[in-house]
């Protein structure tokens, strides 16, 4: 879904931006894409990417509300990675801890309770790992 562009100095890719609450599935349905963002391709690993705008402060102070994160799409993420996970139509970003019977998605903000992810759940899916964040300062 990324579209490459090249200028004199760097290659850019156009990456879709989605909100953390989905209008419909699948994730990259046109109704979920709010815009696109041109991104320097240098340093990006191979793969498919989306930007996600965080709608809460669950990962504050590291990733406060309205932070935009770059997600590398993948079905599974490494232990202790920051990940985006869909719970039905809601996307949560947290730190993944692998357990023998599933995963825990924990949050930096103590006001948010950890979420258990069962390998048998059909409504909970890994979207991918967080590889960059962009913050806007007022």
UniProtKB/TrEMBL annotation:
Transmembrane segments: none annotated. It holds the Pfam family Peptidase_S24. InterPro entries: LexA-like (IPR039418), LexA/Signal_pep-like_sf (IPR036286), Peptidase_S24_S26A/B/C (IPR015927). CDD domains: S24_LexA-like. Residues 27-131 form the Peptidase S24/S26A/S26B/S26C domain. This is Peptidase S24/S26A/S26B/S26C domain-containing protein. It comes from Secundilactobacillus similis DSM 23365 = JCM 2765.
């Amino acid at each position: 879904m990324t579209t490459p562009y090249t200028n004199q100095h760097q290659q850019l890719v156009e990456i879709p931006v989605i909100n953390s609450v989905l209008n419909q599935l699948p994730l990259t349905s046109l109704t979920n894409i709010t815009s696109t963002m041109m991104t320097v391709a240098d340093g990006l690993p191979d793969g498919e990417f989306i930007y996600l705008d965080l709608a809460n402060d669950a990962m504050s102070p590291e990733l406060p509300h309205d932070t935009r994160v770059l997600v590398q799409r993948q079905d599974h993420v490494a232990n202790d990675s920051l990940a985006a996970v869909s719970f039905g139509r809601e996307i949560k970003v947290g730190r993944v801890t692998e357990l023998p019977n599933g995963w825990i998605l924990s949050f930096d903000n103590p006001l948010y309770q950890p979420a258990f992810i069962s390998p048998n759940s059909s409504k909970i899916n890994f979207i991918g790992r967080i590889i960059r964040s962009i913050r806007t300062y007022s």
